[in-house]
Specification:
This protein has about 230 residues and is mostly beta strands. About 5% of the residues lie in helices and about 40% in strands. A hairpin with a 2-residue loop joins strand 11 (about 180-190) and strand 12. The radius of gyration is 17 Å and the shape is globular.
Length: about 230
Amino acid sequence: MSPANERTPGRPRAPRLAALALALLGCGGAPAPARPAAWNAAPDGQQGASSGTQAERYFPLVDGHIYHYATTSERGEQGLLVARVYRADARRGELRFPSGVKRFAFTPEGVIRSDTGVFVLKEPIAPGTTWTGEHGGRARISAVDAAIEVPAGRFTGCVQTVEERLGDRPARFVSTFCPDVGVVAIEAASGASYERAELKSYAPPVDVGPDGLRRAPAVDVGPPVEGAAGP
C-alpha cells in the first residue's frame, strides 16, 4: 500500500521505501477506498474494544487515536506519515489514511490483513515464530524484549520482526512493535536504499469545539519515559 505520504512544507517527499514498509500497518496492495469523510470524521467506533489476544497488545487499535511517523532515507530526505484508528468491534479495526483504508482482524493465530489474510504479527509471540510476510518474504520474530528510543520516547519489552525477501528484488524489513503502543519503528533496505520510519507521536485526536479553543490532550507524547505508551 501507499499510506499517507504527506509533505511537510519545505521538505522533500516522504521516502518511498519507508512508506511501503509502513504498509506493515497495511503492507502490500493498494489501499481500500476510504468511506466518505473517513479521514477527518469524528471518532465513531467502539470504545474500549479488545479481542483479548496476545498479539493485540503489540498492535492495539484504539478508536480515534492518531499516529504520526517521521521518515528519513539514506539521502537525508524527510517526510511524515499519518494514520488514524477506527475500531469496528472486538475483532476488527482499521487504519485510515488520507489516501485510503487498511482493515485488520484479530484472530487466535495473530493479527491479519482482512483483505489478504496475510499476518501482520503471528502468535505465539516468541522468538522463532515464522510466517509468510506481507512483502512476500519469510518473516520471523527475532526478539521479544527489545528496547528502542524514537522521537515519541523510549520503549522497552518490544517485539521485533524481520522479513527477508530473496530473488531478483531482495529486501529486508525490520519492524518494532511495543506493548500498548503498536508499530514504533520500521526499517526497509533494498539494494543501496535504506529508509526508516519512527513514531513521532501517538495520542487521541485534538477536539476543537465551536469556540475553537476546546482541545483534547496534546498529540505529542511528551518527554521520553521508560515503557511509555502515550502522553
